[in-house]
């Protein structure tokens, strides 16, 4: 179940007298989607199927699977024996309803004897809905999480080059799945009552929503790195930063402070390299903000502009009238973002 979105299902061809039929292992999302499409014939129908699924797999796994099918991960075999994604509106709506109706409830487990100074909101155990969402996110990113972003590729007769460890198309696929998940959550934001347990649940769910966005933008940043000439970008960094860059994992980039600090150095290197090649700082910074905004903030753009003014002033001569105008402008910009 953990790897069901990482690799294709196992397929076995069996030679028989009439031909070669193929058996394909069903993923849990496929089982769930079929259950939503074809109800059991007993009197309980869909409700009975759902209760049996929850008893078999647990409520958190049920929520994660419903979420996956609602986000387009369910597949089925057509009458022509072709594997196709399930987009039936009734199935999608049924899985959306399952995600909402079987989410469970958060629990408030205050124990004043254990910790008298603890905030009430910190004593909330999130619901299976939160656990299911976390589980689905982990299934989407498990194959890249601890992997280094880049690897050294050596070809005979050529200098070493840096290549992506994970195929870029696979990264784009993970990003598409995360974007679909984020859109689903935005469309289905439930009303949160202001009780302690539910407030704690909201905080936990909001943290996962922020994680989804962080991973999505992190993948965009990695794609930007490989769109540029990565060897030239690393070459302008300090030796320690170059070493850290070569060892940087997706996990560190997505969630760690050192990874984010290294990303800032890489962004600065990208901008400076493009400026050195004659590009306009506004167009370069705007492209970065559009693709991975959290890695290049509005303040960063102002800083890049200020640095460009200093560079132009140096070329014009600091004592010339043009140089003084450029230096005054750079000072104004630096003061504007001194807090950053």
From TrEMBL:
Keywords: Nucleus, Transport. InterPro entries: Nucleoporin_Nup133/Nup155_C (IPR007187), Nucleoporin_Nup155 (IPR004870). Its main location: nucleus. It is found in: Nucleus. Residues 127-339 form the Nucleoporin Nup133/Nup155-like C-terminal domain. This is Nucleoporin Nup133/Nup155-like C-terminal domain-containing protein. The keyword Transport applies. Gene3D superfamilies: 1.20.58.1780.
């Amino acid at each position: 179940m953990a790897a069901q979105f990482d690799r294709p299902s196992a397929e076995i061809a069996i030679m028989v007298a009439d031909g070669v039929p193929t058996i394909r292992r069903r993923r849990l999302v496929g089982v769930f989607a079929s259950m939503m499409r074809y109800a059991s014939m007993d009197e309980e129908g869909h409700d009975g199927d759902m209760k049996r699924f929850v008893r078999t797999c647990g409520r958190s796994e049920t929520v994660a699977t419903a979420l996956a099918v609602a986000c387009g991960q369910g597949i089925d075999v057509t009458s022509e024996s072709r594997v196709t994604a399930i987009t039936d509106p009734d199935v999608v709506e049924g899985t959306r309803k399952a995600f909402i109706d079987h989410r469970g409830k958060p629990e408030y487990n205050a124990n004043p004897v254990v910790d008298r100074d603890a905030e009430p909101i910190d004593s909330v155990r999130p619901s299976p809905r939160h656990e299911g969402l976390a589980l689905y996110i982990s299934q989407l990113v498990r194959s890249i999480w601890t992997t280094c972003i880049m690897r050294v590729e050596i070809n005979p007769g050529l200098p070493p080059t840096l290549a992506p460890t994970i195929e870029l198309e696979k990264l784009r696929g993970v990003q598409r799945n995360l974007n679909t998940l984020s859109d689903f959550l935005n469309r289905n934001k439930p009303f949160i009552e202001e009780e302690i347990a539910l407030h704690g649940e909201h905080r936990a769910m909001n943290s996962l929503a922020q994680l989804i966005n962080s991973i999505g933008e992190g993948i965009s940043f990695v794609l930007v790195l490989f769109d540029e000439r990565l060897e030239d970008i690393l070459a302008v960094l300090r030796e320690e930063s170059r070493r850290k860059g070569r060892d940087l994992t997706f996990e560190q980039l997505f969630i760690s402070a050192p990874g984010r600090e290294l990303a800032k150095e890489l962004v600065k290197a990208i901008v400076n390299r493009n400026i050195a090649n004659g590009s306009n700082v506004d167009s370069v910074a705007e492209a970065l903000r559009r693709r991975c905004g959290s890695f290049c903030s509005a303040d960063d753009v102002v800083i890049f502009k200020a640095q460009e003014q200093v560079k132009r002033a140096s070329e014009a001569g600091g004592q010339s009238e043009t140089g003084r105008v450029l230096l005054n402008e750079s000072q104004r910009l630096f003061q504007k973002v001194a807090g950053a």
